[in-house]
TrEMBL record:
Source species: Caryophanon tenue
Keyword Hydrolase attributed: yes
NCBIfam families: PfpI
Keywords: Hydrolase, Protease
One family name in Pfam for this protein: DJ-1_PfpI
Protein name per the record: Protease
GO MF annotation: an example: peptidase activity
Family: Belongs to the peptidase C56 family.
The keyword Methyltransferase belongs to this UniProt entry's keyword annotation: no
Length: 173
């Protein structure tokens, strides 16, 4: 079993959290939510899904988890404004631990300054930001970079995204 940290703030894209969470749990993994404060309820922007945050960012260390999930929506933009979340995500990139990001999720990774030379995909509005961060952008439903970074563009890509994140964790087990 792999323990997957999921960083989440209000206005996350509902399906980009719920669908990967279901796929990961069905594969026997544990998905834990990390936000600003334990017990806080954050609401998704599209379907109004309420999620109670398991741990506040000050209550965890990146070493406590095996992988990182960054759903999209407005959440990654909120999180990247906080140095604690940037440092948390940077740990996974620097240590080549599995990172799963979809839609606007790479916005948090842009702020870690770890995307230079990396292959990635994401939603169209952040393509220029990804390129400016030094990433090589690919307009495909899912891209797996260096057997570590799995990215997708939109909720339409969730079947491919979920397939690849589960497959990658099987290889890391």
């Amino acid at each position: 079993m792999v323990k997957v940290a999921t960083v989440l703030a209000k206005d996350f894209e509902d399906s980009e959290f719920t669908s990967p969470k279901e796929a990961l749990e069905a594969a026997g993994h544990e998905v834990v939510t990390i936000g600003f404060k334990a017990g806080e309820v954050v609401t998704g922007k599209t379907e109004g899904t309420d999620v109670t945050i398991d741990y506040g960012i000050d209550d965890v260390k990146p070493e406590d988890f095996d992988a990182l999930l960054i759903p999209g929506g407005y959440s990654p933009d909120i999180l990247r404004g906080d140095d604690r979340f940037v440092a948390f995500a940077k740990h996974y990139m620097d240590d080549m631990k599995p990172v799963f990001t979809i839609c606007h999720g790479p916005q948090l990774l842009i702020n870690t300054e770890t995307l230079s030379g990396r292959d990635i995909t994401g939603v169209k509005p952040i393509v220029i930001d990804l390129k400016n961060a030094g990433a090589k952008f690919h307009d495909v439903e899912v891209f797996v970079c260096q057997n570590q970074l799995v990215s997708s563009r939109t909720p339409d890509d969730l079947p491919a995204f979920n397939r690849e994140i589960v497959k990658l964790l099987e290889q890391h087990a």
